[in-house]
Write a structure and sequence with these properties.
Elements: H1 3-29, H2 40-62, H3 68-78, H4 84-105, H5 107-114, H6 123-126, H7 135-156, H8 160-165, H9 167-183, H10 193-205, H11 221-240
Length: 241
């Protein structure tokens, strides 16, 4: 894979991931959306299908990492760090663009939300936040949840048939749904630094009415936690397998 293919693949794949993921949250949260109040299960499956669509689209070009934690975990396992920066750059750009696309899709709902007497908060559409603010607990949650993502992904690579048939991506998408349902309650399960930081930046820049103040004091947790989780998953896999 060339550097250009990797970058383009990760941009496109991550943009699709965020379009679906942020899109399903917007659908459930925003007033005047037909999916208003559809609930957590819908959100978990929306993110899972985002992984499915994004990874399958990016796979021929870049392998479809879509997540710096996955990229780092793979690099630790293989010892190949040469293209890590290209993967992460593509993921960050794609995450930002996906957030912009979500904003465009729900533009009318964002505008209508501003006219409500009690406007719905919008930061949570684009980035994660804790149910109970406890930095240590929140960080641990993100680390464990990301290990729960990256370690199985690395293990799936040991079964050649999964990779050759493309079934591995389907299984990973259901893995993301499972993480959302089982481990997503405490922090909203970022498990992906690009997924959180790129849209968080987009939310700060985009002209979204009544968006309030971005919570940058928390923003390091969904970046650092998943990166630590990716590193630990890579080390565990290398030691055990």
């Amino acid at each position: 894979m060339s550097n250009g293919d990797i970058f383009v693949g990760e941009v496109i794949g991550t943009a699709i991931l965020i379009l679906f993921g942020a899109g399903v949250v917007a659908a459930v949260v925003l007033n005047y959306s037909k999916a208003k109040d559809a609930g957590w299960v819908v959100i978990a499956f929306g993110w899972g299908f985002g992984v499915l669509a994004g990874a399958y689209t990016a796979a021929p070009l870049s392998g479809g990492h879509l997540n710096p934690a996955v990229t780092v975990g793979i690099a630790i396992d293989t010892g190949d760090w040469d293209k890590v920066h290209i993967y992460i750059a593509g993921q960050m750009v794609g995450a930002f663009l996906g957030a912009v696309l979500c904003w465009l899709v729900y533009y009318a709902q964002f505008q209508a939300n501003a006219d409500e007497e009690i406007a719905q908060p919008t930061l949570g559409i684009f980035s994660t936040g804790p149910a109970i603010r406890n930095p240590v607990a929140n960080l641990i949650t993100e680390i464990i949840a990301t290990i729960g993502l990256v370690l199985p992904i690395l293990a799936f690579g040991l079964t050649k048939g999964l990779g050759e048939s493309g079934t591995a991506i389907l299984i990973v998408s259901f893995l993301v749904v499972g993480i959302g349902l089982s481990l997503g309650g405490p922090t909203g399960y970022a498990i992906n630094p690009a997924r959180d930081l790129g849209p968080r930046i987009a939310h700060a820049i985009l002209p979204i009415p009544n968006k309030g103040t971005s919570d940058w004091s928390y923003s390091w947790i969904p970046v650092v936690g998943p990166l630590i989780g990716g590193v630990l998953a890579g080390l565990i896999f290398k030691a055990a397998f």
